[in-house]
Amino acid sequence: MKIDLTDRVALVTGSAHRVGKKIAVELAARGVNIMVHYHSSDEDTVRDAVQAIKSEGVNAFTVQADISTPEGISTVFDAVREHYGKLDILVNSASVFHANTLLDMPLKDWQQSLDVNLTAPMLCTQAAARMMQDNGLNGGSIVNILDYGAVQPWASRVDHGVSKAGLLMLTKISALALGEHNIRVNGVLPGPVMKTEGMSDERWQEVGNRLPLRRPGQGEDVARAVAYLVSEDFLTGTVLSVGGGEHLISYWD
Predict the structure, then answer these.
(1) 3-state SS assignment for residue 38
(2) Which residues are bridge partners to 100 per DSSP?
(3) What is the DSSP string of 184-225?
(4) 0.85 cut: is pTM over it?
(5) Over the range 148-169, which residues count as b (16 or more CB within 10 Å of their CB) and which as e?
(6) Domains delineated in the chain
(7) Mean pLDDT, contiguous 10-residue spans, the chain (253 residues)
(8) 171: number of CA atoms within 13 Å, CB side?
(9) CA 92 to CA 112: how far, in whole Å?
């Protein structure tokens, strides 16, 4: 059954910019009120995100916190309770993206990737599930944002890949553990949808040309996948690949 998202409440971590912002705006367009979480984004960036969300006719509040710490997680969920009093949707989108090879990887980068990309979603899942249990039959929905480092070895992104692989397994375990509470947990596995800072347009197009569709995607592609997962009440433990066929490259001539 398709779920009406009007007046639902979503927490989207890392939603002041990039893919997180696209997700928040897409959910807002479907009637969802948004808690915008950010850590280090500047005031203008956060303001722009809030304006884009509110332009869809919903409410938006912000909370600044370092979710790599339990204290930061508490700050975020205290803000959700204060402003909305309930939670229907959690999107674990916040992420760090270090470039490290195995032999040159600093321990601090390894630890930060695990803290932000894996431990934070686990703690957010725990806190969200406790709130969603109060929704009764309405339950709730959790979506984890992955990437291909979770399923394919990426020699230059070691800590990132390991943390995202852990998040993939957390998605499956959470779906099993929370199903009895009518809390659905799914994942979205994006391919190249937003170029990294400093990448040229020419290089970005080269990345897209490697794909079966011969073009890169957009953040909105991921956002629509998230909206689909939270709107369908019989999907849990599902991972949607949104990568223009990137998962086929090994077999594609």
Answers:
(1) strand
(2) 157
(3) EEEEEEE-S-SPPTT--HHHHHHHHHTSTTSS---HHHHHHH
(4) yes
(5) bbbbeebeebbbbbbbbbbbbe
(6) 9-251 (3.40.50.720)
(7) 95 97 98 97 96 98 96 98 98 93 94 97 98 91 94 88 96 98 97 85 87 91 98 97 85 44
(8) 29
(9) 16
